[in-house]
Design goal:
Blueprint lengths: L3 E5 L3 H13 L3 E6 L2 H11 L3 E5 L7 H11 L5 E5 L4 H9 L4 E4 L4 H11 L1
Parallel strand pairs: 1-2, 1-3, 3-4, 4-5
């Protein structure tokens, strides 16, 4: 099932890699954002089915942005990705409303499984 996805990461390489992976699997990347502020604006404009969001972002971190997006749309499906493995941070991500947390680096299969579950 094709999903409309927004990718949020300040690293252009990571956004490109995720876009290519997702599009190869038939999903549509409808928006990309490199900062917390861009992510909120893009979510309002594109209303994606799923958001894949890094924690470390300029302006606002991914946990803050998750809360902001969910205040706009309680049904938003947000997957957090991060190289950080701090247990309190992971708990905070889920407490903010994220539906999954994936550690970087991740395998393509792990990401696609998370997207499948989010759908």
């Amino acid at each position: 099932m094709c999903k409309r996805i927004m990718v949020v990461d300040d690293d252009p390489f990571m956004r490109k890699m995720l876009r290519e992976l997702l599009e190869t699997e038939g999903h549509e990347v409808v928006a990309e954002a490199a900062s917390g502020d861009e992510a909120v604006t893009a979510y309002r404009e594109f209303q994606p089915d799923i958001v894949i969001m890094d924690i470390v972002l300029p302006n606002k971190n991914g946990i803050e942005v998750t809360g902001l997006i969910l205040s706009l749309d309680k049904s938003a499906r947000i997957i957090i990705i991060s190289a950080l493995k701090d247990i309190p941070l992971i708990r905070a991500a889920f407490a903010s409303g994220a539906i999954d947390y994936i550690h970087k680096p991740f395998t393509p299969a792990k990401m696609l499984e998370a997207v499948r579950k989010a759908a």
